[in-house]
Amino acid sequence: MVNVFFALTEEFNSDGVIALLASGQAVVFYRIALMSKDGDWVLKETRGACRHVLSVLASHGARYRPGAPLDPRWLAGGWSCHFEFFDDKKRRVRCDFVSRPPRIPAADIETMFSAAHGEGALRVVDPGRLVLLKQTQRAKDYPVIGELARLLPPQSERELTTDPDRILELATEAGGDSARESVRLARRGRSREEVVAALAGEVDRLQQADRARMQRYERAAQGYLAEFRGTVPVEAPLEEAHAFAVRLAERSLPTTLEGEVS
Amino acid sequence: MQMLSEDDLDLKEMTDVELERAWDLWFDLAQSTNDADPPYSHGVLVGLGLDRTPAHAHRER
Question: What kind and span of H or E run contains A112?
Fold first, then answer.
């Protein structure tokens, strides 16, 4: 009955912390909502970490889904790697990995691991960085950001919340100037309607930026993914499929996209 | 402004065991939409269409 994604996190980290649980399952960990049926991890960008995760996944009978090979060369370029297996109750368990999560500067990733929450081997992305990860193109992530932001100190909450009432409350209570137009308007005593409109614009810009980022990766991956679907033996043992995926990626998947990894 | 429902926010009041039970039940129910799910929900391929997954081939493991 244990959450399979929590249990997997503990398996990944059994010999030292190499994987932080992120996204929807981290939202479950913080008791915000039961909102995701997949697992998403930020992985250390080392060959050892990749080998260990592949070994754990293989022990569960996992198979590759089309995506980059779990290899530091492509992880370092911001690519994501995708797997799935079925648990002992025949439930589908999808597992996704990145080592360069969106909107987190590369120089901050080591700190991200030391700032992780949780106990023992169950390590979870901290709420502030989780907010940044949740700034996606999906509308459903923004109410969750509002709740996650409540876990932060007031000034950080003010800079990240998507709740207009909290912006209005915190505008003058917390900190000084803000980079957010919605907060600046609230600090100047402008109407709620103007604050809400500014907030909507901020959210839309985040969604559009995320969408544009995805499109760059999707375009760069088209040829590789078409060949992956046709040639990688996803039913083969994971190690064999991994070797295929690596050889294919070496031929047809760029490790990095210009301007994508900071 | 409360942005999530009382049902969601009640998670904070649950014990660890209650949360695990709630999640387990939710995960069971969520399997019913597997075939309709988008192929990717995280990572940089989220916008891509249906792929060839190994789902049906090893579902009976």
Answer: helix A109-114
Q: How far apart are CA A188 and CA A180, in angstroms?
A: 13
Q: Rounded to whole angstroms, what are the CA distances from B34 to A8, A158, B43?
A: 20, 37, 18
The shortest CB-CB distance from A80 to any of B8, B11, B42 is to B42
User: What pTM was estimated for this model as a whole?
Assistant: 0.91
In B4-33, the residues whose Cβ lies within 8 Å of chain A are: 4, 8-9, 11-12, 14, 19-24, 26-28, 30-31
Contact residues on chain B for A3, CB-CB shorter than 8 A = 20, 23-24, 27
Q: Does A76 touch chain B (CB under 8 A)?
A: no
Q: Are A87 and A4 in contact (CB under 8 A)?
A: yes
ipTM of the complex: 0.82
Separation CA B29–CA B31 (nearest Å): 5
Q: What is the pLDDT of residue B60?
A: 38
Residue A86 at interface with chain B, using a CB cutoff of 8 Å: yes
Burial class for B15, CB neighbours closer than 10 Å (0-12, 13-18, 19+): exposed
How would you write the pLDDT of chain A (262 residues) with one tens digit per residue?
589 999 999 999 999 999 999 999 999 999 998 878 999 999 999 999 999 999 999 999 999 999 999 999 999 999 999 999 999 999 999 999 999 999 999 999 999 999 999 999 999 999 999 999 999 999 999 999 999 999 999 999 999 999 999 999 998 887 788 989 999 999 999 999 999 999 999 999 999 999 999 999 999 999 999 999 999 888 889 999 999 999 999 999 999 997 776 5
How far from A134 is each of A10, A34, A174, B32, B51, CA to CA, in Å?
A: 23, 15, 23, 25, 24
